[in-house]
Amino acid sequence: MSSHPEISIRGLHKSFGSTEVLCGIDLEVGRGEVVCVIGPSGSGKSTLLRCVNLLEEPTRGQVWVGGVELTDPDVDIDAARRRIGMVFQQFNLFPHLTVTENLTLPQRRVLRRDRARAADIAARNLARVGLSEKADAYPAALSGGQQQRVAIARALAMGPEVMLFDEPTSALDPELVSDVLAVMRMLADDGMTMMVVTHEMSFAREVADRVVFMDGGAVVEDGTPDQVIGAPRTERTRHFLARLLDPAAAAAEQGAPDRVGGAD
To answer: Which H or E run includes 125?
Structure first.
């Protein structure tokens, strides 16, 4: 991991009407670093991720990726976004296209690759996520975990330098989560710079270089997994982790069923 920041966020604010969702975020992610962002629903985690590639336009503040300021009004945002892959909670695959076609279409339309090269890159990235045998399948024939791995392969086929994951396992049945996390571990081992919004604490403990705990649109704690998950400094972090480990108690406390780590 390089000390050079691949992602720099300075004074980031985001409001929706009168509601301030991000309250002045300062954060850096080094090249090759894996940062897991945790926190309760509504804390601003997903909004932060969407501001990094300007799917949401910040109200004020600056975002740099790979030394390019995405918040500069004169930036070529389409070119800048090509450096960034994003994987969402939902898979967003085209149901009428095969797996290979889902991977080749964005390459051909955005990067102007010819059909043969796009197909070759698609095949290599399907192999990376362990789905070569599903190249000709349609999304409806795949499990949720397989569809998410195809979505990761599609993002990788664009050649990103940074990968953003927004709760990539939250829509999956528990037995399907492990294969997706294994692919993400592989990317981390390969040195991919990653920001991961997640409620999978075992993944954060094992893979993250740093864990960021957010609440109320602000960064409350930022440190190693042992520091933030193993020995949190603040009561807010301790309370969140206790609820995450005992969801039944959290549901009783709320007076209704509750799933920690949902969409912001």
So the answer is: helix 115-128
How many Å is the maximal CA-CA distance in the chain? 57
Give the type of residue at 230: G
Query: Which helix (DSSP H) or strand (DSSP E) does residue 67 occupy?
Result: none
CB atoms within 10 A of CB 104: 24
For residues 1 and 57, what is the distance between their CA atoms, to the nearest angstrom? 29
3-state secondary structure of 4: coil
Q: Residue 70 corresponds to which tokens in the numbers above?
A: 């995405």
**β-strand 34-38 against 210-215: which pairing, if any?**
parallel
Q: b/e map of 229-238 (b: 16 or more CB within 10 Å)?
A: beebeeebbe
Distance (Å, whole) CA 228 – CA 141: 40
Query: Which two structure tokens, joined as six digits, stand for 81?
Result: 């976004």
Q: For residues 1 and 31, is the Cβ–Cβ distance under 8 A? A: yes
The candidate with the shortest Cα–Cα distance to 93, out of 150, 30, 28, 177, is 150
> What is the structure's pLDDT at 132?
97
Whole-prediction pTM: 0.90
pLDDT digits (tens, 9 = 90+) for 65-88: 999 999 999 999 999 988 999 999
Task: Say if residues 35 and 29 touch (Cβ distance below 8 Å).
Answer: yes
